[in-house]
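Hi V.,

Quick status before I head out on leave. The structure for the redesign project is tokenized and pasted below; the design run finished overnight.
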């Protein structure tokens, strides 16, 4: 990264701070190994059944009786989530990522995008989960 890019990012961060907005996350601060053993023990939160999934926790009032219709399993840094959100603004989209720091990055980015664009990006969220083990805890058959 050049010095010009760094100074532009610092200026953007100062403007965000003055406006009371959360900073846009940067990938370089969320470094993570490329692989996580999906069979190792991990302390993950997941609902016992799909009916017990609290959508308001992720989507707020936007959930309002809706069901998740799109799932991005292994969403990585959330690129597909961010692109699908404006294309399907009335559909709930859930990203699932097993890597802790990567899912934290996506979470922080969604929060920052929601703050910068009121009324947008309310239909996406990312959870840290092992889809190989817990996919059925999030979705009913034929839901997606």
């Amino acid at each position: 990264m050049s010095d010009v890019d760094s100074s532009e990012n610092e200026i953007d961060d100062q403007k965000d701070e003055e406006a009371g907005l959360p900073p846009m996350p940067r990938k370089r601060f969320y470094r993570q190994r490329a692989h996580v053993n999906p069979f190792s023990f991990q302390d993950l939160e997941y609902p016992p059944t799909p009916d017990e999934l609290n959508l308001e926790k992720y989507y707020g009032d936007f959930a309002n009786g809706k069901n998740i219709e799109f799932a991005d399993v292994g969403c990585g840094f959330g690129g597909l989530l961010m692109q699908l959100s404006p294309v399907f603004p009335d559909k709930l989209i859930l990203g699932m990522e097993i890597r802790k720091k990567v899912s934290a990055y996506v979470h922080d980015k969604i929060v920052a995008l929601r703050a910068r664009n009121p009324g947008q990006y309310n239909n996406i969220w990312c959870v840290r989960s092992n889809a190989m083990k817990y996919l059925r805890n999030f979705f009913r058959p034929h839901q997606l």
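Above is the designed sequence. The chain has one domain: 30-138.

G. will cover questions while I'm gone.

Best,
W.
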